Records
---
Amino acid sequence: MMKLLPIAILALAFAPHSGGVELRPVEIHDQLALQAEPGKKIALTLDACSGKFDSNMIDFLIKNRIPATIFATKKWLNRNPLGLSVIKAHLDLFDVENHGEKHIPAVIGAGKSVYGIPGEPDVVHLRREVIEGGKAVEKATGIAPHWYRSATAEYDAQAISEIDKLGYKIAGFSVNADDGATSKQRTIEKRLARVKAGDVIIAHMNKPASDSAKGLSVGLAYLLKAGFTFVRLDQVKLQESPAKAGRNLHRKS
């Protein structure tokens, strides 16, 4: 049975328009659901859209034993066999989830786009994006994914419903660390310094020429010293973060 969409998503997804009701994409903000065990738990999620493999970032995570959930597209998996081999050698740390086949935003309809990236022309194409992305992850790692994050991390109401029907949980976030790997190192450090227990961090591991690895290395080291514990999304549940509902914090990735 399809789950009911959160009230905040429904309120944002449908906006009045002179011609009737117009679907508007939303960015989903989540935090970790309340945990039975006490502790300062947070989740690091890394998008691998297309592009390359940021070995400096992954090497830092491995050295410091920091778990992360990686959202990889089929495009990235096919283009980065060396990076994939490193991740597969450390599946005790890394959980690989579904970021789609071709990195297409989850908005449906002719002419629709997010940050200039065209969306899906119809539901059939959306289903292919999700299904083929999932197959690629399972083929690459031997483990079927259960979480989905679309390109740009924005969705319209119809796409949310279809992704749910396909059996995926949509992975939102509460802290945008690197703005699609466009932020400077100091900005990333400042954002991570404000992380609180329960936060879900989004960053990117597909642009090694960016400041993402440098900023995250400093920021994550600080969080470790502050006593935070990192968890993967396959180990927890997420809940809507009402404090950030409706805020548009995610730039083109």
---
Amino acid sequence: MPVEVPWKSGVWTTLPVAAAERDGHLVVTAAEGSDAWRHTSYGFVHDNEHALLTDWDREQAVEVTFTVDYDGDFDQAGMLIRADEEHWIKTGVEFSDGALGVGAVVTDIKSDWSNAPVPEWAGTEVTIRVSRIADGVVIRAKSGDEPWRLVRLAPVNPELELQAGPYCAAPTRSGLTVDFASWRLTEPDAEIH
């Protein structure tokens, strides 16, 4: 049985420009220049994303639902999973190279990036779901009522204590506002396939 996580129970990694509850949703406005990335290819470190995090009990899955209503370069929203500034995963929907993509950035001192096009997700409600299985994190996503898609199976030290919750960032512009409809805990995936 899913359990809603109250918005007020999280702590921001970096305060957004604005965050307000409206009809049970959390509406967040990101600061221009906000992002999460470490070193790889670009050579910079950004650690100023807007993530609302709580401790993650490995016996539960975490789900975040938000509306994909943005089209600025590198606008992004979804979920952040974090151990510390050098060990984290961000996953969600990002607008890059002129199109929306679902993907993940897995960071173990340096970041990587996976991305698959989902232009049909524009204007829809997307849910990101993460579960811990052994030494990994299984990331799934879906738009509306469609079936879950496997986004990534990422390695994670099983001894790490992690936090998880909704996040957004706007690396190149001001004015990105994301409507998060829910943040909940539910039964984790029992297997990868």
